[in-house]
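Hi U.,

Before I forget, here's the chain from the pilot set. I'm dumping it here mostly so it's searchable later in email.
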Amino acid sequence: MDQARIRRPADWNTGNLSPSSAPPCGITPQELDSIRLYAGAPIPGRIERFYRLPNAYQTFNLLMMAGLEGERVRICLEGQEPDPVYIREWRRTLNVFADIFRAQCRYRAFLTVEGCVLPPLFRADRRLNVEQLRTLGRTFAFTSISKGKCLPSFAAGKEEPALLEITLDGSCPCLDVAAVLGEGYLYAKEAELLLPPFLHAQVSGGTYFTPQQLLQYGLNPDVPVLSYQVRFGGFCSGEDGESPHALVQRLDQGQADAATVLAAICARRSLDGLSDDALRRYALWKQSFSQLVWAYFRPIWAEAFQALGKG
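Structure:
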């Protein structure tokens, strides 16, 4: 999803669309709508602002990033436009996350039953994200990888672009977005597999491609690009943290302030002028949201793991 793409306009119209036939791989219609929202595909019958914004994935991923470096790079430097509606309606956002993760687990089970073998996989990213991935040892947001070659324009406008060579182990939840959304999906040529947050990750590399290697990938040899190798595994079950009830209370209490801070950063394209306390509380709100996502994902993964015959 970080590869360069032109998004549908914010005033897109779904009035002439009809609901699709039954989704594949046991994925439910509700899960399919959540996938469409993340992928930037039209959602039949949905007219609320929550479902009509063109780049919902930008906000979803930003909310899962610790601290404020994501805001500094993605909003202030790269001009992304996350929207506070996904903070104000955080419960609905949480349900979208859970829908997508269930679908990813179902699709992984489908691949296992069918005996499918994945081709070489890649991801276009930023050094900031890859080094955070290395430090954490896990994914921290939904992560798009590709079965096809990276787009030559992926490095344009990115701070310290990186190209990742990817391996998935047999228990790694994933979702082939084009295969699930079917004919007419606008970004099918990206051959995108979507991974969930909280997957084990082993990162190696971090050196620059040579000009000759960049040419082999069809990239501009004058733009430095870092090379990494990443292996993704199963879900990080971990230890129990703060209770979901306490997290819900904190999210409810702080949602208005957090939405205001995000709106201010987007309007200013800067963190300057916002108080340290407001920024601190905003970062803590995001942390609580991420922790609640993890708590929601745990039982989904436990059920999926048993379904794969690995429990």
